[in-house]
Design brief:
It is built from 5 helices and 3 strands, in the order αααβββαα. The protein has about 170 residues and is an alpha+beta fold. The longest helix has 20 residues.
């Protein structure tokens, strides 16, 4: 019997020590921040995408050449590139961007949103309604979107796809 009592006291001591070591105030703060910031996009369409800095410095040799006025020639055809990005809510979205080039000009454009034609989020919808007006009629090296339709992360991902298509279509 004394061993049983000693074992029960030891278990109670370990549990009490563990409970005392945790800091419930800190844990509840983390939960509050998580609940405020990490809501699903579908439930909170008002929450804007995160702002990101846009560099004005040329990032690549090709960008530096563009600044000098050198026009790059692109082969006619249909090109597709896939990009993805994470939202502040830690959700990943993929974009399959297809651009059709004729005489060095974008004549058609389409996007698959997470593998489907229909936009998935309010930011996707805003971008989908606006990007063609900005892109059609331009050469690939003239496209540099910034927060089209209120969607900064989507615009940046689209720019990445354009860069990949430039590589596919470049001829000079």
């Amino acid at each position: 019997m004394p061993y049983t009592i000693a074992a029960v006291i030891a278990v109670i001591g370990v549990v009490a020590f563990t409970v005392m070591q945790s800091d419930p105030a800190v844990e509840s703060e983390v939960i509050l921040v998580t609940e405020e910031v990490r809501t699903p996009e579908e439930e909170s369409p008002i929450v804007p995408e995160a702002e990101t800095a846009v560099s004005t410095e040329p990032e690549t040799v090709a960008d530096a050449e563009r600044d000098d006025g050198d026009a790059t020639e692109f082969a006619d055809g249909s090109y597709t590139a896939q990009t993805s990005y994470f939202t502040p809510r830690r959700t990943e979205h993929t974009m399959d961007v297809t651009l059709v080039l004729e005489d060095n000009i974008v004549t058609e454009a389409s996007i698959l949103w997470d593998g489907e034609v229909t936009p998935k989020t309010p930011n996707h919808s805003g971008f989908d309604e606006a990007y063609k007006e900005v892109v059609l009629g331009l050469s690939l090296d003239e496209i540099q979107l910034s927060r089209v339709g209120g969607a900064s992360l989507t615009s940046e991902s689209f720019n990445e796809a354009v860069k990949a298509i430039e590589t596919q279509a470049g001829t000079s």
